[in-house]
UniProtKB/TrEMBL annotation:
Coiled coil: none annotated. Residues 1-21 form the signal peptide. It comes from the Bacteria. Pfam families: BatD. Keywords: Membrane, Signal, Transmembrane, Transmembrane helix. The chain crosses the membrane at residues 453-471. This is BatD family protein. InterPro entries: BatD.
Length: 596
């Protein structure tokens, strides 16, 4: 419904703006030509039109042309809805005298005592054509006067540097647009992308190839390249309904229009993505590209033992805020530290992402003393200055002024405790005296023959015979359950391939590397192919050809995308666990569905 409303709005806006409504009192004097490029053996028609009657019309000199006919004068005077419409036109038929580029200069006329002039018009004369003065069709006119353009802000960005793409529909004053709808929206493969909402279509004046046009911004996108090298941006395609003027007029002298549909495309655009320089790359660089500020902030620096404080590691600025890892804290062991809480306040505009990302650590000291929070460094690449920058925080001293004293504290005179070990605290009756007066009793001699153990060993095997029969029947039932065996075999296979990833669940990078390797190894084993050179589209095609349903294929490709994106985005342990379970389920589903 919203899309229908948007189309209605754009129709009203375009019709209202592309039609040149004239004030009744405004004087309009202009020159129009039948074509701006013609062959040496063709003819050119030029009309000088005014909307008020004028005197002393003076035509230009027509250098480079010979006047074959003219001036022919025509006057149109009509009343529409109670309003008078007047038009007076002087027409000429010209023939070029040579090849080249020529300018038809200004014509002048006197209207109500004032002198008005037309704008100069540039004409290009080419070699003679096969079919001179062949009339153009509505499609030809639409092709010449309608253009969809993708404006790319930077065609040579660095890896992870923001690139904006603005799609503009240019429409010449010679035609009007009554409707359009998208046919194919581009997919930004190898990019992290974010659409910027265009709340309303606004018609603006501009130029296209040096000629006056009006245009509408249809779509805005910000992309961050995730690979280096030459990357392609797919074109946006539209089906546009165009109203093209004809040479016919109605009974009131108004020009008649014909309607046609045109498919316009922004064209595929190539972006050459540069790798980040290896020279000067800091050891702690995690992929941040942009301009940033960095600091470490504590909620307080003086507190009692067992009270808590918050230490926030904060990065703010403009850049790929969603695509890098924050530096971690290194704290003394006597401080109890909880898993950080990640927070982000990021907005995306046409210039890229900007905002703040942070990790908040809750810290609880156990003992009295002074504890340092060491300096933390954050490194990023500035694409404007083309160099790496490192920001280091100040060392912060936490003063725990009340609480138990750590018995393992060093006798050093230094006032700062830096590497405490948590002592084991004795609780309860952990140490008791050994009793010296033992209450010992003699052990009675037992006879094995005819004892309980004797009869158990004698008749036990006989009693187990029914159990063996039951187990055997159960085993046969399991073996005859083909579908159940297939499910169990698929689950076992999934666990086999993902065993390495499961061991690395606590380590993000190692986990996703192991999971990506497991997914590719599974395909190699199952499809008997090499996956190193296969794209995701080819993998989807192979799985679909072996009767794997679309949902399972999409889940498999989604996991591969997660593995690639995990290098640049913060990931929680809950997300990692969910991805592991999803991978196990996907491999199991493929193994049940696939037909070799």
């Amino acid at each position: 419904m919203n899309m229908v409303k948007n189309y209605i709005i754009v129709i009203l806006v375009l019709v209202a703006n592309f039609s040149f409504a004239q004030d009744d009192n405004a004087v309009n004097f202009e020159a129009k030509v039948s074509k701006e490029t013609l062959g040496l053996n063709e003819r050119l028609r030029i009309d000088f039109s005014m909307n008020k009657d004028g005197d002393n019309f003076t035509p230009p000199g027509f250098e480079g042309f010979r006047v074959l006919m003219g001036p022919n004068q025509s006057i149109s005077n009509s009343w529409i809805n109670g309003k008078r419409t007047f038009s007076k036109t002087y027409s000429y038929i010209l023939s070029p005298t040579a090849r080249g580029k020529f300018t038809i200069k200004q014509a002048t006329v006197e209207i109500d005592g004032d002198i008005y002039k037309t704008l100069p018009i540039n004409i290009e004369v080419t070699a003679a054509v096969d079919k001179p003065n062949e009339e153009k069709t509505a499609d030809d006119i639409a092709d010449d006067n309608l253009h969809l353009v993708a404006e790319v802000s930077n065609q040579n960005p660095y890896l992870n540097q923001a690139v904006s793409i603005i799609y503009k529909l240019y429409v010449s004053p010679n035609i009007s647009v009554s409707d359009f709808k998208p046919l194919d929206n581009p997919k930004y493969n190898d990019f992290w992308s974010q659409d910027i909402e265009v709340k309303r279509w606004k018609v603006e004046n501009g130029t296209y190839n040096g000629k006056p046009y009006r245009y509408v911004i249809l779509k805005k996108v910000v992309v961050y390249p995730q690979k280096t090298g030459k990357l392609s941006i797919e074109p946006l395609s539209l089906d546009v309904t165009v109203d093209v003027p004809t040479n016919r007029r109605d009974i009131f002298g108004g020009r008649l229009y014909t309607q046609t549909h045109k498919t316009v495309s922004a064209g595929s655009r190539a972006i050459n993505v540069k790798a980040l320089p290896e020279k000067g790359k800091p050891a702690d660089f995690t992929g941040a590209v942009g301009q940033f500020d960095f600091n470490v902030i504590t909620s307080k620096t003086d507190l009692k033992a067992s009270e808590s404080l918050t230490v926030k590691v904060n990065v703010d600025g403009k850049g790929n805020l969603n695509l890098f890892e924050l530096p971690s804290l290194s704290l003394p062991s006597s401080l109890e530290v909880y898993e950080p809480e990640f927070d982000k306040k990021v907005s995306t505009s046409i210039s890229g992402m900007q905002g703040t990302v942070s990790n908040s650590y809750t810290v609880v000291p156990q003992y009295k003393g002074k504890y340092p929070i060491p300096s933390v460094s954050f490194s990023y690449f500035d694409p404007v200055q083309r160099k790496y920058k490192t920001i280091s925080s100040q060392e912060i001293l936490i003063n725990v002024f009340e609480g138990p004293v750590n018995s393992g504290e060093s006798t050093s005179s230094s006032p700062v405790a830096t590497n405490y070990k948590q002592p084991v605290m004795a609780t309860g009756n952990q140490f008791q005296f050994i009793k010296l007066n033992a209450n010992l009793k003699p052990v009675k001699e037992k006879i094995f023959f005819k004892s309980t153990l004797f009869y158990s060993l004698l008749f036990g095997p006989l009693l187990l015979i029914p159990l063996f029969i039951i187990v055997g029947k159960k085993k046969k039932a399991i073996q005859s359950d083909v579908e159940g065996n297939r499910i169990r075999k698929a689950n076992k296979l999934a666990k086999k391939y993902l065993s390495e990833a499961k061991r690395a669940i606590g380590k993000k990078e190692a986990f996703y590397e192991a999971m990506e390797r497991a997914l590719h190894n599974y395909l190699k084993a199952k499809l008997k192919i090499e996956t190193s050179d296969l794209s995701k589209d080819k993998i989807s095609e192979l799985l679909t050809s072996r009767n794997v349903n679309d949902e399972t294929v999409n889940n498999f490709i989604s996991l591969l995308n997660s593995c690639e994106l995990a290098r640049y985005t913060p990931t929680t342990e809950v997300t990692i666990q969910q991805d592991y379970e999803k991978a196990a389920n996907v491999i199991s589903q493929i193994d049940k569905q696939i037909k070799i």
